[in-house]
Write a structure and sequence with these properties.
There is one protein chain. By secondary structure, the chain is of the alpha+beta class. It contains 20 helices and eleven strands. It is 56% helix and 10% strand. The strands form four sheets. It has a four-stranded antiparallel β-sheet. Strands 8-7-9 form a three-stranded mixed β-sheet. A hairpin with a 2-residue loop joins strand 10 and strand 11. Helix 3 packs antiparallel against helix 4 and helix 6 packs antiparallel against helix 7.
């Protein structure tokens, strides 16, 4: 018996006394390696070597090197132990690493160089706006747009890796067949037309800002508002071109991911990078809540609406809930994969731990929408994923460990819920919450929706088809907000808002039915694409799709789509859900 060490995993080969084995490695072309073994039989009474192949013998002269190899083979079979030492160092450590992070199998192609470049840039586009204060500053918005544009540009630049990467022509074909690419172009064309054809002009004075009609505009084309691109004082600069930057970065990232990332391992690598940064931000945010920290770098405030690097806690809650969905998806993907490789654990335990940390941080954001999304993912997505994986893989050590981790996560959140909730006084608790909201001078969303809907009804729905113009909400809404009693004060002043706290309604006001129809078509196409492949779904796909549905509901109560880090993470979640559906074969990897 002889033990051959194959990349840290021992392979035991039983040979006759006079037999030896040699082998060589070959590359199959799809990223996997195969080892070919050749058995040679030696006769002690002859100087010739006989190699058996289909019953025929061929005679060759035996060299001194072959004699030495034969003697070493017989010597190794007597003295080499059947198992390598299982200590902390040496082969024992290599075995553990190989079991936790198994190498790719033959049916999953390796990540090409173009995918690696696009993946690194995509990961940077996902974390940079989140780290730099939620991309509320114009400089960070330009930077985020530039990173996403670089990822998009690398779809067409030449990459020299022996033809393993898709060509620029392949990327062009992928974009041509991607409806969201064309829908995005139409939406940006609408925004540009509104910005270049203003019907109103904003005049900013020292203490006032007024809106004056502009006579020189084309009536039959979509119109907008000529407003400041950037402004230091409140309410801040915003117009059609500034809004094109905010939405352009996530759109370019979406197109780059769809046309440039085809392997699930590339998606997994991006997710791990974003999760690492997300864990650091989550830990920082929890520390801020515990210590009562009220300053954030150059920003100082007397309220607690910020969390980590996010200046608005609801954006942090939405971002963390989406990231929690990605962590759950990684858990189920690694768990399902490692169940066929090893029963000694795997990276699914690490991703499950990160998911638990993100869940705790999401609760600390105090965002009701984020906590609702988190609870749904944890109490619906996680149990369904566990049962799904158990049904497909059966019960083994991985199943027991994964079930225990999921049960611990559920038990922890249940503990927090019961410790902070008095189930016998539900009505009193809701009353206290409403009083807290009133004392904090934060109105609920109904007055916002009422004021915004009055803009839709303006002059018998005159603006309903093409809207008031991209980036016009904060300039045109004050005229309607002052009519709502919840926003009027006794001194005659009134409160104004930069956002409607309902993304879909604000999009209807700014872009009209034409723009909202493009957005709805994008969501419907993605849903149809996923539902057509329902039989190929995995637990990871289910969790990511559920996270997208929850985001759509959350965006109806807040302005999430106008945040670059949140919308960029939505784009990644959509592409990840699609990529986890595709089969592993190399041929299927191009079916994008």
């Amino acid at each position: 018996m002889r033990v051959i060490q194959d990349e840290g995993i021992p392979i035991t080969v039983v040979l006759p006394e006079n037999d030896t084995t040699s082998y060589h490695d070959s590359d199959s072309g799809d990223g996997s390696r195969h080892r070919h073994y050749h058995h040679h039989h030696y006769h002690s009474s002859s100087e010739n070597r006989h190699s058996g192949h289909h019953g025929h013998l061929s005679h060759h002269a035996r060299s001194e090197d072959e004699n030495e190899f034969s003697r070493k083979s017989r010597h190794d079979s007597d003295e080499m132990p059947a198992q390598p030492p299982s200590g902390i160092f040496g082969n024992g450590l290599r075995q553990r690493l190989a079991a936790w992070f198994p190498r790719s199998v033959s049916d999953e192609p390796s990540v090409s160089r173009r995918e690696k470049i696009v993946g690194v840039l995509a990961a940077a586009a996902l974390v940079v706006p989140a780290v730099l204060y939620g991309a509320v500053q114009l400089e960070v918005q330009f930077l985020s747009l530039g990173i996403s544009a670089a990822a998009f540009l690398f779809l067409f630049l030449p990459v020299f890796d022996g033809g393993k990467s898709n060509t620029a022509l392949d990327s062009i074909k992928a974009l041509v067949r991607f409806p969201l690419f064309w829908l995005g172009l139409l939406l940006f064309a609408l925004m540009a037309c509104q910005g270049l054809n203003p019907e109103w002009t904003v005049i900013v004075r020292t203490y006032t800002m007024r809106l004056f009609p502009e006579a020189q505009h084309i009536h039959w084309l979509p119109t907008g508002v000529d407003s400041p691109f950037d402004m230091d004082r409140r309410p801040g600069g915003m117009n059609a071109f500034r809004q094109m930057i905010i939405f352009g970065g996530p759109w370019l990232l979406l197109c780059a991911l769809w046309a440039g990332i085809h392997r699930r391992r590339a998606i997994v690598g991006i997710a791990w990078g974003v999760l690492t940064v997300g864990f650091v931000l989550a830990a920082w945010g929890v520390q801020m809540r515990i210590t009562g920290q009220q300053h954030l770098g150059p920003y100082n405030t007397l309220n607690t609406s910020f969390f980590a690097t996010f200046l608005y806690q609801n954006h942090a809650g939405a971002w963390l809930s989406l990231l929690f969905g990605s962590a759950l998806a990684l858990t189920f993907w690694h768990w399902g994969k490692s169940a066929t490789v090893s029963a000694s654990g795997g990276p699914h335990l690490l991703s499950a731990g990160l998911a638990l940390c993100l869940a705790c941080a999401s609760v600390c954001t105090l965002s009701f929408g984020g906590m609702f999304s988190l609870g749904t993912l944890l109490f619906v997505g996680a149990p369904v994923g566990v049962l799904w994986t158990l049904f497909r893989k059966g019960v083994n050590l991985n199943a027991i460990i994964g079930g225990a981790v999921a049960a611990a996560m559920l038990a922890f959140l249940a503990f927090v819920f019961f410790e902070t909730t008095n189930l016998q006084e539900t009505e009193a608790k809701l009353s206290r919450k409403f009083k807290l909201v009133e004392n904090a001078r934060i109105d609920d969303r109904e007055p916002f929706r009422r004021a915004t809907w009055s803009m839709v009804e303006f002059k018998d729905y005159e603006k309903v088809w093409t809207g008031w113009g991209a980036g016009s909400y904060r300039w045109t809404s004050p005229h309607f907000f002052k009519r709502i009693k919840e926003f009027r004060h006794r001194d005659g002043s009134f409160e104004r808002a930069n956002y409607a706290h309902c993304d879909w309604l604000q999009m209807l006001v700014e872009w009209g039915v034409a723009g909202v129809a493009l957005v709805a078509a994008a969501f419907l196409w993605m849903a149809a694409w996923l539902l057509r492949r329902l039989r190929q779904w995995s637990p990871a796909t289910f969790v990511l799709a559920l996270a997208l549905v929850l985001f759509i509901g959350h965006a109806s109560m807040d302005f999430l789509n106008y945040s670059m880090p949140v919308l960029s993470l939505v784009a990644f979640t959509a592409v990840a859900a699609a990529r986890f559906v595709l089969p592993r074969s190399k041929a299927a990897a191009k079916q994008y």
